[in-house]
């Protein structure tokens, strides 16, 4: 099975991802949010990669500081000496992604590469922390994913890009896509990270999950905050859920006997 090649995916499932550390329960992408998620028992943290104008790698979602910090400006146009003064929610420093990787060698990080400028510093951070087996790359750009894999230079877990997700959905809904599925399988990408729906189209269906599983690929769904929807997705057989509602997902999995907390849980 393709997904079994990757240590990132070897935790007992379904995998529970704390999206931006659990953005519904703390300041998103802050060290405090990540620490709380780890204390709850989360082994998987989802975060994002941006770089400042001088190449410092941040765990931060937006292209600008404006929405979640007390400063303004586009991150890629600001040096780190300016960005480091920003506070998430007026309180929390923006964490360096390398610091997160180095602080928790037992934790897996699902990293959304937000721009091409983040690729080189991300590859270097992964090398310096020897995090190859505990990161998974994702992006809304197929090209960016290709560049990131090449920059890292070793096989690492990554998710399908948007064009490949569209191909997987087509294969799940229409016959005659056998060769396409074979190409997806040969690509060596072990997971599809998908929304429930997109622009009025259903994406996460039982057929899509079965189609992915048939080629050895896991399906992780984002970003699910409603416990009832979490239950329905688990009934479909998805392999992972990303959530801002970290307490809610933990409770759902506990009721099903499927919560497998990391050893750093409080």
Automatic annotation (TrEMBL):
Listed EC numbers: 3.1.4.46
EC top class named in words: hydrolase
SUPFAM superfamilies in UniProt: PLC-like phosphodiesterases (SSF51695)
Pfam family, one: GDPD
Gene3D superfamilies: Phosphatidylinositol (PI) phosphodiesterase
Keyword Hydrolase: yes
GO molecular function: glycerophosphodiester phosphodiesterase activity
Name this protein carries in UniProt: Glycerophosphoryl diester phosphodiesterase
Organism: Nonomuraea thailandensis
